[in-house]
């Protein structure tokens, strides 16, 4: 059985998101459901560890996994998540990307201070929300996210590419000059989620706990985000309608790594590549070879 969020977010949660750029500790899944989902993910790791089509499994976990992995596509359609996101973005919702961020126990992998939409080719839109769902106990020790309240009210700021091998971001991109004392921690219990604005400054530290830190990041957008933008991009309609038709709508995968879905995956990566790697001085690891990003 899953938890539900009646009528989406409460007024206090909506106000918190509007003023601070994020909202935390929103219940989505029960403890039993989280255990089931973790088992399904770890079974997928055991059975498809080699990946597919010349790419390792991490490539698909970190970039557009909903195109080729049915579990990730279905999780993006979870009613409790959609109800909460609808409270912010309105009736018509599409999924741009689904990603798994996994930090193994006692590892130094981090995510540096950044804004999500910096390299996504969406401009400075307010119509993108990231839902980040904890599928393990995401404590401060485990490297939970932390946020700078109110930072979403600014535009996109300069980021520098570090290419740090311990940074989980595709370019190791980071914002300089952040005052850590201003940060608010976003610790989550298993089955809880946070929502954050695409311009909100956020980061996460290393996992110094005894368990894996497993987080599911789902990027939701509205049909209007693509208005007037060049090029072509793809999204999966999960609620309402897309009358604007700026996105190429996709339906979700047939099966795990179905050949037709893998072909579509390559097409999407090809079309997204120029935007997501623009200005990078080095190859982006997740976009090298068949090319990718997050």
What does this protein look like?
It is a single chain. The chain is of the alpha+beta class and 294 residues long. It has a single domain (11-285), classed as q2cbj1_9rhob like domain (Jelly Rolls). Helices cover 23% and strands 22% of the residues. The strands form three sheets. The chain has a seven-stranded mixed beta sheet. The longest helix is centred in the C-terminal third of the chain and has 18 residues, at 259-276. The protein is globular and about 50 Å long. The two termini are 31 Å apart.
Count the strands? 13
* Net shape: globular
* Sheet/helix structural class: alpha+beta
Helix content: 10-25%
User: How many whole angstroms does the radius of gyration measure?
Assistant: 18 Å
Unreliable stretches (pLDDT < 50, length at least 5) are: 1-5, 279-294
CATH superfamily: q2cbj1_9rhob like domain
Brief overview:
The protein is α+β, with helices and mostly antiparallel strands and 294 residues long. Helix content is 23%, strand content 22%. It contains 6 helices and 13 strands.
Set out the fold topology:
Blueprint lengths: L10 H10 L1 E6 L3 H17 L9 H6 L7 H6 L3 H11 L3 E11 L7 E4 L13 E7 L10 E3 L12 E2 L11 E2 L9 E3 L5 E6 L4 E3 L8 E9 L12 E6 L8 E3 L8 H18 L18
Parallel strand pairs: 12-13
Antiparallel strand pairs: 1-9, 2-11, 2-12, 3-10, 4-9, 4-11, 5-8, 5-10, 6-7
Q: Which descriptors would you attach to this protein?
A:
alpha+beta; seven-stranded mixed β-sheet; 294 residues; Jelly Rolls; four-stranded antiparallel β-sheet
């Amino acid at each position: 059985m899953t938890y539900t969020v009646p009528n989406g977010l409460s007024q206090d949660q909506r106000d918190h998101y509007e003023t601070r750029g994020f909202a935390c500790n929103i219940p989505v899944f029960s403890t039993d459901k989280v255990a089931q989902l973790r088992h399904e993910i770890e079974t997928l790791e055991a059975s498809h560890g080699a990946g597919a089509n010349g790419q390792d499994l991490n490539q698909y976990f970190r970039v557009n996994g909903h195109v080729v992995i049915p579990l990730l596509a279905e999780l993006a359609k979870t009613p409790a998540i959609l109800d909460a996101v609808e409270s912010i973005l309105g009736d018509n919702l599409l999924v741009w990307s689904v990603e798994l961020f996994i930090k193994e126990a006692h590892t130094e992998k981090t995510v540096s201070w950044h804004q999500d939409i910096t390299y996504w080719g969406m401009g400075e839109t307010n119509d993108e929300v990231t839902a980040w769902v904890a599928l393990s106990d995401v404590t401060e020790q485990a490297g939970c996210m932390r946020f700078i309240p109110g930072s979403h009210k600014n535009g996109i700021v300069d980021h520098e590419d570090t290419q740090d091998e311990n940074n989980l971001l595709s370019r190791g991109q980071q914002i300089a000059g952040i005052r850590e004392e201003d940060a608010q921690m976003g610790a989550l219990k298993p089955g809880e989620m946070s929502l954050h604005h695409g311009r909100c400054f956020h980061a996460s530290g290393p996992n110094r706990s005894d368990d894996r830190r497993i987080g599911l990041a789902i990027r939701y957008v509205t049909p209007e985000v693509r208005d007037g933008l060049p090029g072509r991009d793809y999204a999966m309609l999960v609620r309402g309608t897309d009358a604007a038709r700026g996105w190429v709508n996709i339906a979700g995968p047939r099966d795990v790594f179905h050949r037709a879905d893998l072909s579509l995956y390559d097409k999407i990566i090809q079309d997204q590549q120029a935007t997501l790697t623009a200005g990078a001085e080095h190859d982006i690891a997740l976009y090298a070879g068949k090319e990718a990003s997050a």
